[in-house]
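Hi support team,

I'm opening this ticket because the web form for multi-chain structure prediction keeps timing out on my end. I have pasted the exact lines I submitted so you can reproduce it. The total is 592 residues across three entries, so I didn't expect it to be a heavy job. Is there a limit I'm missing, or should I split the entries? Thanks in advance, R.K.
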Amino acid sequence: MQARDPLEMLIEELGDPELQESLEKMVKLVKALNRSGLLDVLLAMADEEVVARLSSMLVTTGTMKLADNIEELTRAAGEVAQALSEPVEPVPLSELVSSLRDPEVLRGLARLLKVLKALGRA
Amino acid sequence: MSERITVDARGMACPGPITKLVRAYRKASPGALIEVLATDPGFKPDVEAWAKRTGNEIVELAEENGVIRAVIRVTGKK
Amino acid sequence: MERILVLGAGTGGLVAANLLASHGYPVTLIEKRETHLFQPGMLWIAFQGHNPSRYTRPVKELVRPGVELVHGEVAGIDLGDRLVRLADGRTFTYTTLIIALGAHLDYDATPGHRELVERYGDFYSGASAAEKMWSHLRELTSGRLVIAAADPLYKCPPAPHKAAFLAAYTLKRMGRLGSVEVHLALPFLHEYPSEVVARIVAPKLEDDGVRVSTLFTVESIDVREGKIYSLEGEELDFSLAAVIPAHRGPMIRVEPGEVLDEDGFIKVDKYRLNVEGYDDAYAIGDSSNAPTSKTGVTAHLGAEVVVDRIMGYDSRFNGRTNCPIVADGTASFVISSYGHPPVPVKFTRFKRMLEDLFIASYWSSLKYPERWAPIFRAYFNATDPRVISGGW
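Hello R.K., no limit was hit. The queue was backed up. Here is the completed structure from your submission:
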């Protein structure tokens, strides 16, 4: 079997209306990107040193751990946000002590201590 | 005199020593002795667990100057 | 005249050759195959029915201009005379040699193994064998699928686990997990060579409906009776089975023979990766005896170290691994390096997405390794086992 001429294959492809439509859109997109100045920014960013600095800033032990726990964090944040929107009355001291028997409060305190410890380490 | 195979796994980290033991065991005939030398501290409990699970007999298990020496008699093979 | 010779266009060989070309070195790459296979892809072909075309590319499309690609099979290396001999009789001399010939899969070491692979395929010997495995898995309505290994030393240590996870997921979607048992038989004391990893993987295997046998090293296979026998004296019935073969060093003649270990792997300095006793020859990836896992990541990182050293930098290989364990929608990584055993890494969705990104970047990272190097370096620093020793 003889290898086909790449130019011949390309010309054949160009007859495809779907490709024509895609190319038209692509040209529009590139023009828009150029007008907005975004292409110049991207070209400047494609520099090896910029990529190195950017990735060493974005890909760190901290961000890896953060992203890994994003589901837990957003769930906790959601609960906290909801709790904040609920009306509260000032709690008398006696009630404060009795609420310490609530397992949810105790778990929350235990978590808070862990967070404090992690903050101390950081 | 029974066959004796020596396996030197000094300097290898877990699970290197057990891997070497398994390979020596494959070649050994019933009744043979396999001697393994290892420096990985995890080797001691591992070789004990291995021998127990596979029905082979530990004849000797000693540690000297950081080197664990295990001698196993092949009794688990028919 | 300077000529760097790279043997083998797998992950390590391609990264080394393309990196050298990007720095302007004259480099010749010798490869016997026309196509390069992304080896982890075999798991997806065999157990999820992916199209093999996703995981194969012509070698000539993966080399940069500046790399001279020679199609031929390496038969022998003479380190003293700096000479490489091909099976067809051609010879090549070099000033620097990089051996990246991979490991040889020894299907003859285990009685019945060839017959098993010919009948059912597997997920180690190639894309078409993986397709064959898939054609049998999709027809499997009852019985037992066994994933096992003939030796504790094989490339990609979590491959059998991934196989079991992916197969269980597929069978579950087909509503057959239950009538079909997925059985993972491992040649280790625990559910993974490292006990730390075993403690994370074991509950996940149980959750996903995979049964596990430990200390089961395949000794022989009876295809007609559907039985696998272990070195430890146990047996397993199977309806369908894939057994990882024993691995050996590349099947070539090497002079002097002392540079090969008892399994035919090339003895190297584990940090500098030069062949023992030679400073003008290196071995990377699966073909070397470096005491780390045989994986694409170690081959890629090893190639970077060797190219650095050829350029005059005192770069050292640290044995870093990053083996993904892919489960249903989540993933974990086996992260270790020389002197730092695997750390506990929990299964999360983010890690699965990271693995998807690694796979997506594969072809580009082979051809343009220097473009990806800063990003990979940031990732490997961020997840250095010393830094995340407490877990990730």
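A quick check on our side: The longest helix of chain B spans residues 16-27. Let us know if the file doesn't open in your viewer.
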